[in-house]
């Protein structure tokens, strides 16, 4: 929990143990955390030096962290400095470091685009080999901050399905808007049904079409990856990575067109099924979002009241609008009243 603020696992264990019972000596904390006594002494001294803990006033004259015995003095006992005081500077430091990293990222990205904009390599990269293709795929998915658009076609070649599932879970946890259009043949495999069902239940938007022209993944509408025919690289898996350009815009347009024409998928007790016009009804969770939305509650307050992320709320609103065929929230409210959703 505190690793992002610069505390390692052992330091956090001592910190939280001290929070649970104060004051405490190094020996007390070693016993509670399972650490060796010298490690507990060292960590307490470090926490005190960083202003996160302080020695009890009555033991300031003793040697901090000593267990007593040699000098006859009792062991030093520690209290935590209030977290709101002690951890705030660490939080500010980490936040400033992140802002600097984001600024550097933006500068380097724009510099790369300006220097490579007039070359073919600035628009399209060719990646060859199983390891290189898998590495670039994971870069795209783990680097996505807002949106992932995916075409699923055929069996995985360079990236095992379990690795793909892991990347999907990580993206969903970060609040990335995840939409997938699957070739019907992909869903016919019995070994993918449960994975697909789990993805839909986790919040992935999934639709199916009879066929797709290619397999691809698009991250934040900034980068896309499209596998190539293996015969073009001597039988070795290969792909192209497309950066922001007219070609990337065409791929995004292709995805949106297929998404609009695809059939939604819904979970069942045993797997997933295609939706039909007659049974495209909002779920109970979506009805809760809709009720608050129509009551005039903002998206952020809806998320807070229902214990959801803002991304999840936005996904559910978008699906409601898809179900209603609405282009605005006003139209959504009209359709909801007409269809008896509430």
Name some characteristics of this structure.
342 residues; alpha+beta; nine-stranded mixed beta sheet; three-stranded antiparallel beta sheet; 12 strands
Describe the structure.
The chain is α+β, with helices and mostly antiparallel strands. It is 49% helix and 16% strand. It is built from 14 helices and twelve strands. The strands form two sheets. The chain has a nine-stranded mixed sheet with strand order 4-10-9-8-5-6-7-11-12, with helices on both faces. A three-stranded antiparallel sheet has the order 1-3-2. Helix 1 crosses helix 2. The chain is globular and about 80 Å long. The two termini are 40 Å apart. The relative contact order is 0.07.
In total, the number of strands is: 12
Tell me about the largest β-sheet.
9 strands, mixed
Strand content: 15-25%
What's the shape? Answer: globular
Average pLDDT number: 79
**Rg result:** 27 Å
**What is the structural class?**
alpha+beta
Strands in their spatial order, largest beta sheet? 4-10-9-8-5-6-7-11-12
The tally of helices reads: 14
Helical amount: 40-55%
* Distance separating the two termini: 40 Å
Q: Extract low-pLDDT stretches.
A: 59-70
* SSE topology string: HEHHEEHHEHEHEHHEEEEHEEHHHH
């Amino acid at each position: 929990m505190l690793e992002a603020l610069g505390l390692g696992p052992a330091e956090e264990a001592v910190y939280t143990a001290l929070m649970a019972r104060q004051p405490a000596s190094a020996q007390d904390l070693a016993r509670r955390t399972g650490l060796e006594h010298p490690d507990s002494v060292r960590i307490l001294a470090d926490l005190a030096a960083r202003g996160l803990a302080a020695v009890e006033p009555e033991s300031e004259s003793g040697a901090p962290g000593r267990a007593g015995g040699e000098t006859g003095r009792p062991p030093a006992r520690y209290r935590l400095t209030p977290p709101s005081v002690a951890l705030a500077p660490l939080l500010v430091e980490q936040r400033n470091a992140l802002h600097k990293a984001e600024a550097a990222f933006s500068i380097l990205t724009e510099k790369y685009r300006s220097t490579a904009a007039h070359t073919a390599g600035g628009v399209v990269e060719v990646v060859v080999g199983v390891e290189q293709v898998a590495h670039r795929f994971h870069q795209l998915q783990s680097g996505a901050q807002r949106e992932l658009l995916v075409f699923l076609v055929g069996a995985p070649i360079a990236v095992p399905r379990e690795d793909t599932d892991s990347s999907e879970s990580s993206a969903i946890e970060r609040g990335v808007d995840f939409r997938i259009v699957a070739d019907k043949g992909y869903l016919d495999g019995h070994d993918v049904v449960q994975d697909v069902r789990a993805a839909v239940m986790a919040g992935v938007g999934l639709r199916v079409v009879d066929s797709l022209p290619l397999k691809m993944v698009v991250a934040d509408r900034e980068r896309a990856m499209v596998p190539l025919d293996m015969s073009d690289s001597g039988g070795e898996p290969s792909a192209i990575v497309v950066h922001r350009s007219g070609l990337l815009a065409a791929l995004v347009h292709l995805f949106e067109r297929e998404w609009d024409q695809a059939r939604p998928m819904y979970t069942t007790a045993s797997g997933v099924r295609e939706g039909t016009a007659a049974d495209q009804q909002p779920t109970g969770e979506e009805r809760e979002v809709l009720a608050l939305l129509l009551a005039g509650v903002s998206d952020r307050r809806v998320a807070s009241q229902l214990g959801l992320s803002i991304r999840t709320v936005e996904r559910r609103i978008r699906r409601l609008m898809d179900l209603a065929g609405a282009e605005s929230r006003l139209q959504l409210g009209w359709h909801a009243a007409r269809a008896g959703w509430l």
